[in-house]
Design brief:
Length: 257
């Protein structure tokens, strides 16, 4: 188990290191999110193949992570090609700071996918990883969050691609229910994968809780909502309609908060 986990960590940081060298040399942020998705696929593959006899649980759990990684990283790559990424406008000119972003991404990959990775590299007998109600519930929650995030991303991307909406903000579709429906979907899907992994026999509910809590912390306090809030404050000051939208729409959880 220790060797398999170490091998997974090696590929995690190795891929991010290569992506960092290329991105710093070219002074481009275009490959940042794409490399994140590739790293998720790599660590899941390495951990999955360490299982002598992967079960239905291992297969579906790993497939969920891969499905999410391909969808989100592909979407963010296309978006970066078209609109760029404001997060790196100044950072990419400073190699040391830019490198730090890739290091943080490597940590993010491991902590977020940890429940799945640890189940995959576990030495416990395969028969213990059966599929029961907690797993079906968790995968159902994952699917709901996955679709919620994907639809929200598609709605906003389509909105931004319309030249007529250049100076407007989106308040339709899922964005009428939450100011950040994509983040709500993201937190929800990782919570689902936490449930499905934590409650297999021999699972670690408290340890695995790091995954959804870390995602929530990043989106609420670090790189998600705080980053957008700065630009939204200026927009609200210039737009009565946007200020009204902020006041009347849930911040994250539809109809709740």
């Amino acid at each position: 188990m220790i060797f398999a986990l170490a091998r997974t960590l090696f590929w995690d940081f190795a891929i991010q290191a290569v992506a960092a060298v290329i991105s710093i040399a070219l002074r481009t942020e275009k490959f940042y999110d794409l490399s994140g998705g590739l790293t998720f696929l790599a660590v899941v593959y390495v951990s999955y193949t360490s299982q002598a006899k992967p079960t239905f649980f291992h297969s579906i759990q790993s497939l969920c992570v891969c499905l999410w990684a391909v969808r989100l990283s592909g979407f963010l790559f296309v978006r970066a090609l078209r609109f760029g990424d404001q997060r790196f406008k100044k950072v990419k000119e400073h190699p040391a700071r830019f490198l730090l972003f890739f290091f943080v991404q490597a940590v993010w990959v491991f902590l977020t996918s940890m429940p799945t990775l640890l189940c995959n590299v576990s030495n416990r007998p395969s028969l213990e990883f059966h599929t029961g109600l907690p797993q079906l519930l968790g995968w159902g929650i994952f699917l709901f969050g996955f679709l919620f995030e994907a639809i929200a991303d598609f709605q906003k991307y389509t909105f931004k691609c319309n030249p007529e909406n250049e100076s407007k903000f989106i308040s339709s579709g899922l964005w009428s229910l939450s100011q950040h429906p994509n983040y709500f979907g993201e937190i929800t899907l990782w919570t689902g994968l936490y449930i499905s992994a934590a409650f297999v026999p021999g699972g670690h509910p408290l340890l695995f809780l790091i995954s959804p809590l870390f995602v929530t912390f990043l989106l609420l306090k670090v790189s998600g909502i705080p980053t957008l809030s700065r630009s939204e404050k200026k927009r609200s000051a210039d737009s009565v309609a946007h200020k009204k939208y902020i006041e009347n729409t849930a911040l994250l959880i539809p109809f709740v908060w």
